[in-house]
Known about the structure:
The structure is a single chain. By secondary structure, the chain is α+β, with helices and mostly antiparallel strands. It is built from 4 helices and 9 strands. Helix content is 32%, strand content 37%. A 7-stranded antiparallel β-sheet has the order 1-8-9-2-7-5-4. It has a two-stranded antiparallel ribbon with strand order 3-6. A hairpin with a 2-residue loop joins β4 (52-56) and β5. The longest helix is centred in the last third of the chain and has 24 residues, at 131-154. It is globular and about 60 Å long. Keywords: Cytoplasm, RNA-binding.
Amino acid sequence: MLKKKSSNKTLAENRKARHDYFIEETIEAGIELVGTEVKSIREGKSNLKDSYGEIRNGEIFIRNMHISPYDKGSIFNKDPLRDRKLLLHKKEIMKLAGYTTQQGYTLVPLSLYLKHGRVKVNLAVVKGKKNYDKRNALLEKAAKRDIDRQMKQKYR
C-alpha cells in the first residue's frame, strides 16, 4: 500500500516564537501576495522574525514580515516589509479580535507553508513568557533529553 504524501511544505518558521510565548490557539490563514513575492517565498527568502498580526477595520494584516525581493522581478518587486493582508472569514477575525483585546495577548505567525500550491500562514494567539518560564522550559527539555538518552543506552 502506498503512503499518501503530505501536501504541506514548510517554507519559513518562527522558532523563536515557541520559545518566547505561550501558544493559546492556532489558525490557518491565506495571505495576499503578489507574484514575485510568491516566487521569493518558494526560494526560501522570507523571514518571520519580529513579525506580528494586527487587526485594522475588521481585517488582519501581518506587519514586519520580510520577503526579500525576487532576483528576476525588476519593476514588479514590492517593498520587502510592507503590510500583507491575511485571508480569513469574518467570524474567525472577530474571534481573534476578542483574544487580542485581552491584556497580554497578541497574534504571531508561526510558519509559512505551501498547501495545494497556495502559501498559507499558521497564525497563533500568544501570551508572553517571563524569564523564569523560559528557564523552566529549558530545564524540562534538558531533563527529557537525559531520560531519553538513558533509556536508549539501557535498551541497547
